[in-house]
Design brief:
There is one protein chain. The chain is of the alpha/beta class. The chain has one domain (6-189): Rossmann fold (3-Layer(aba) Sandwich), CATH 3.40.50.300. 43% of the residues lie in helices and 23% in strands. It is built from 7 helices and 9 strands; from the N terminus they run E-H-E-E-E-H-E-E-H-E-H-E-H-H-E-H. The strands form 2 sheets. The chain has a 5-stranded parallel sheet with strand order 2-7-1-8-9, sandwiched between helices. It has a 4-stranded mixed sheet with strand order 4-3-6-5, sandwiched between helices. It is globular. The structure holds guanosine-5'-monophosphate. Guanosine-5'-monophosphate (5GP) is lined by residues 13, 37, 41, 72, 74, 76, 82-84, 102-104, 106-107.
Length: 190
């Protein structure tokens, strides 16, 4: 497999990383393609199969684990699996593009371990866990129970932020976007 470059954006959900990821993908100077992850969780809101995620049943997901189809995978929440398919990386690198990952901290650090010289790891940090909670409630797509679960995960992820090469604090979205673009451009041009 031809290996291209990897940009890992990790952050607790609600940190604004999806918005930042979108600007990177829209930026034609960067030539990045989004790595569509596989998951066994059901679609949320308007999410589409093949665009936001590859939505698999737990049985199918587990069969793919056995087939060694994943570059990395994880049971992010009990019974809910998420992972990066090797075929997804082959698709993107095969087209001569670089990969953008919007995945969790453990997955992101695993990608760095697998492709150490080709990977840039960026952690997007929310101003506080309280702000995260407000953002998740405003999104209106999760129950209180799910929000509590996400906030708990956020605490664990924030504790590992210093394992990333760069931490970008998202208290001002425009400034955070600018900083991420600068870091990514430097890495891709290095
Ligand atoms: P959500 O359910 O909010 O879409 O995602 C839940 C968590 O799973 C997020 O932290 C997200 O970054 C993470 N995630 C998404 N795709 C992957 C993946 O391919 N691998 C890993 N390890 N985590 C992922």
């Amino acid at each position: 497999m031809k290996i291209g470059k990897c940009i890992v954006l990790s952050a607790p959900s609600g940190s604004g990383k999806t918005t930042i990821a979108k600007q990177l993908l829209d930026d034609k100077t960067l030539d990045l393609v989004f790595s569509v992850s596989a998951t066994s969780r059901p679609p949320r809101g308007k999410e589409e199969h093949g665009k936001d995620y590859y939505f698999f049943s737990q049985e199918v997901f587990k069969a793919k684990i056995k087939e060694d189809a994943f570059a990395e995978y994880e049971e992010v929440y009990p019974g809910m699996y998420y992972g990066t398919l090797k075929s997804e990386l082959e698709r993107i690198w095969g087209a001569g593009k670089n990969v953008l990952f919007d995945i969790d901290v453990v997955g992101g650090l695993n990608i760095k371990k697998s492709f150490p010289n080709n990977t840039l790891t960026l952690f997007i940090k929310p101003p506080s866990v309280a702000v995260l909670g407000e953002r998740l409630r405003a999104r209106n797509t999760d129950t209180e129970e799910k929000i509590a679960m996400r906030l708990e995960k956020a605490e664990t992820e924030l504790a590992r932020a210093n394992e990333f090469e760069h931490i970008v604090i998202n208290d001002d979205l425009e400034a955070a976007k600018k900083e991420v673009k600068r870091l990514v451009t430097n890495f891709l041009n290095a």
